[in-house]
Amino acid sequence: MKTIQRLLAAAVGAVMLSTPAALAAGEQHHPEEHDWSWEGPFGTYDKGELQRGFLVYQQVCSACHSMNQLHIRNLGEEGGPFFSEEFPNPNDNPIVRAIAAEYIVEDGPDELGDMFERPGRPSDRFPNPFANPQQAAASNGGAIPPDFSVIIKARHSGPEYIRSLLLGYDHEAPHDVNVAPGQYYNPYFPGGLLAMPPQLQDGLVEYADGTEATTEQMAHDVVTFLTWASEPHMNVRKKMGLMVMIYLLVLAGLLYAAYRQVWSNVKH
Question: Out of 2.40.50.90, 3.40.30.10, 1.20.1250.20, 1.10.760.10, which CATH number does the structure's domain 34-232 have?
């Protein structure tokens, strides 16, 4: 019995001694705090940020990352980057139709049983940049890029984490971290090493509204767009929630007035 207790004590001691070193080698920085337009009960997505963020996704991120759970028409729905009251049906929105036509989609079979390619339609999902997971892994050093449809919801401190990750490549790797060829050090990534190289640099895209495309601005905008992609109906939900609260307050006032009227002549 004493022998077993000594072995257990030795094992616990070994774990306690090795844990600090392991944590030091793969230490992950906490994401930096940042202010977002949609935060709080009355916060909403900024349309300009959404449009700029979509441009960054389209020109930078979409080469590797899919958005399988979103349709192109979602861009023109209420609260989306290209919503227009003139075109409440996003399938009729000319901007959305033009964006969809930029994609080439495989369709079919036709009357002869053959598959064919055609320009995209608003009703199509965002095309996957790779034909299958094996091709995605082979093109990215063995790592399959995650889908971006709900990436913000899938990560702890999602918006801050993604923004910090995009801007975190300027940190030097600690001396005890071995960065192998094809890997990059980023202290905001779990373990510190990832296969994705730095994606943003000043002037990488050209914003149509004249906003300067700095690295920080692009990171902010694309995270705003990805947050919308993860929760595209947030603006509508908050608006409905506000109306419900107003309705409940009015109802509570009416009920209280009725209570006072009914029981005003009753002695207590």
Answer: 1.10.760.10
CA 127 to chain CA centroid, Å, is 17
**∠ CA 49-51-55, rounded to 5°:** 110
pTM: 0.82
Q: Write out the chain's pLDDT in tens, 268 residues.
A: 434 444 334 333 333 333 333 334 456 789 999 999 999 989 999 999 999 999 999 999 999 999 999 999 999 999 999 999 999 999 999 999 999 999 999 888 888 898 889 999 999 999 999 989 999 998 887 889 999 999 999 998 999 999 999 999 998 898 888 898 888 999 999 989 988 999 999 999 999 999 999 999 999 999 999 999 999 999 889 989 989 999 999 999 999 999 888 887 777 6
Contact in structure between 129 and 66 (CB atoms under 8 Å):
yes
Angle (deg, nearest 10), helices 215-230 and 47-59: 100
Residue 148: CB atoms within 10 Å: 25
Phi-psi region of 170 (alpha: psi -120 to 50; beta: other; left: phi over 0): alpha
